UniProtKB/TrEMBL annotation:
DNA-binding region: 29-48
Residue runs in coiled coils: none
Name of the protein in question: TetR family transcriptional regulator
Entry-linked Pfam families: TetR_C_13 (PF16925), TetR_N (PF00440)
């Protein structure tokens, strides 16, 4: 009779996500994962498959959380223009809380792996598409609420906000100070005026 696993899969996935997010894929060895997760090699392979499969699961877990957070903020009742501004503010504020600054796991993975890993690239494309759609919906409602003048190409504006957000992640990871990030977001959001 097989013994039941002595660990929680989601908890292990969250821990793996933290380690990959901090170090990146290439700099994280199987040995590092085993030590950090506190499990043996066979348990890792039985539960998650190989290192790459674990990485993809961690990346998807991060994406689900990030998507849920952005969508929850954008779908709150009230001003959609203010909700979009809040997404940017919350994102920048999150940088102040992480030492060292890790940036965005999706964006980090884009830079490290997407050019030569089709599975990571597909996850990244899906992530950016979800963010784009969420901004697009919020902008549409903002326009209906009279907060945004008509005549805007909402698809292009949502794409601009999505790409600006990704750029902020890269700049934050590179060490740009929070005041400069806030100034950049303020200028980017001025297109909504």
């Amino acid at each position: 009779m097989a013994r039941p696993k002595a660990f929680d899969r989601q908890e292990m996935l969250d821990k793996a996500m933290e380690l990959f997010w901090l170090r990146g894929y290439e700099a994280t060895s199987i040995h590092d994962l085993l030590a950090y997760l506190g499990i043996n090699r066979q348990s890792l392979y039985d539960t998650f498959g190989d290192k790459h499969a674990l990485f993809l699961a961690a990346l998807n877990r991060y994406e689900e959380r990030g998507k849920a957070s952005i969508i929850a903020t954008l779908e709150q009742p009230g001003s959609k223009k203010e909700a979009i501004e809040r997404v940017f503010r919350n994102t920048i504020q999150s940088y102040a809380q992480s030492k060292p600054r890790r940036g965005c796991f999706i964006v980090n993975s884009t830079i490290e792996l997407a050019p030569h890993d089709p599975e990571v690239a597909a996850c990244v494309v899906e992530s950016f598409a979800c963010t784009h759609k969420a901004f697009c919906r919020a902008l549409s409602v903002a326009q209906e609420q009279g907060e945004l003048r008509t005549g805007y190409d909402l698809e292009s504006l949502a794409r601009f906000l999505t790409i600006t957000m990704q750029g902020l992640h890269v700049a934050a990871k590179a060490g740009t100070d929070l005041a400069a990030l806030h100034d950049t977001a303020k200028i980017a959001l001025s297109v909504l005026a």
